[in-house]
Amino acid sequence: MSAISKHLFTRNDLLETTICLSDIATLKNGYVFQSSKYNTLGKWRILTISNVSGERYINDKDCNCIINLPNDIQDHQVLKEGNILISLTGNVGRVSLCKDGDYLLNQRVGLLQLAKNVNQEFLYQILSSRRFENSMIACGQGAAQMNIGKEDVESYVLPYSSNVNNILLVAKILYSYDECIINEQRRLTLLTMQKQYLLTQMFI
């Protein structure tokens, strides 16, 4: 889909200007959880950089859990469905959306807190592009393990429009492609399972 998004993001008739990400969003950091508090029976699942894979939604496998929320945890560190998450260490610049559930924001995972009236889907599509990831990788060069920070993310310049209808149109088009991709991936998974079942039956 990168060719489609690249085409839309460079259309001056749709996105006639550019803005700095800091104009419409603020990067918030995660909580430093104590491993001694981890409990496999806990309902709260802690999202780390490994859960932000760059797919549309987080991969919530292999999460550490806790039973009770820390007393000093901040509101934004208790995640909500649709929150835009960014990996700040290692595979920097990967972006995924939080799913519905009891998830917590760990250190080195950034949460974008959007200004009022900012279209969440549009911003996600912009930041999930290869252009953003490459820009963050460039910012993180020069260390044994790549790291980016608040200034790196918030200084990113993105295409934008003062016409809300243009923003909605771009978001709608790219969201429809994401939906198709997800449905096809589910279909592929189902077909793979069916094939494995048939192969198993052949050798009984």
Blueprint of the fold:
Blueprint: H1 2-9, E1 17-20, E2 25-28, E3 44-47, E4 64-66, E5 84-87, E6 95-97, E7 103-105, E8 109-114, H2 120-127, H3 130-139, H4 150-154, E9 157-160, H5 164-202
Parallel strand pairs: 3-7
Antiparallel strand pairs: 1-9, 2-8, 3-4, 5-6, 5-8
Helix pairs in contact: 2-5
Keywords: DNA-binding, Restriction system
Protein name: Type I restriction enzyme, S subunit
Organism: Phocaeicola sartorii
Helix run count: 5
CATH topology: Adenine-n6-DNA-methyltransferase TaqI, Chain A, domain 2
In terms of structural class, how would the helical and strand content be classed? alpha+beta
Biggest sheet, spatial arrangement of strands: 2-8-5-6
- The beta-strand count equals 9
State Rg.
Answer: 19 Å
- Name the helix and strand elements from N-terminus to C-terminus, one letter apiece: HEEEEEEEEHHHEH
Domain Type I restriction modification DNA specificity: 18-189
Family: Belongs to the type-I restriction system S methylase family.
InterPro entries: Restrct_endonuc_typeI_TRD, Restrct_endonuc_typeI_TRD_sf, Type-I_RS_S_subunit
Protein name: Type I restriction enzyme, S subunit
